[in-house]
Amino acid sequence: MRTNFDFTPFRRSSVGFDTLFDLLESGSQSRTEGFPAFNLEKTRHDQYRITLAVPGFSRDEIEIVTQPNQLIIKGLRREDDGDRDRFLHRGIAHGSFERRFQLADYIEARSARLVDGLLTLELARDVPDAMKPRRIEIGAVANDLIEGPREAERAA
Fold it and tell me: Where is the SHSP domain (predicted)?
C-alpha cells in the first residue's frame, strides 16, 4: 500500500526545493513497494536529514551513490535458498532494495551513518556565492557632482 504525503506547506517556506519534494512524494523503489520506509526532516535552513529504516543490513550491504541532482541508496543482500525451508512465515523484509531521490540544485549529501538499523543521511544546500542574491546599495549623489557642471557653465 502506497501512502502519499502532501508537502505543499513545506514548499511554501522552502523555495527552490520543489524538485526534492516531488521526488520524495514519489520515491522510486525497484523491488518492494514502500521499503525501506523513510523520514525527511528539515533540520536547519538549507539542511535536511533523510532517515531510512534498514533493519538487518550491515554497512557492507548498503551502497550510497550521488549523481548530479540524484541520490541512490541500494541495499544489496543475497537470499540464502536454504533459509526458505526454515521459515514458516517471513514478515520482516530481507531482500535487496533501491531508493532514488531527486535532489534540487546544489543539494549535497554530506554524511551517512548506520545505527541500530537506521541509515541517516545529512544533506545540505550549498549555493555558490556567484549564484546567491546580493543587495546593491543605491549611492547618494555628491553635491560637487551636481555643482560641478553649473560652475563650468558660469565660467563659460
Answer: 29-141
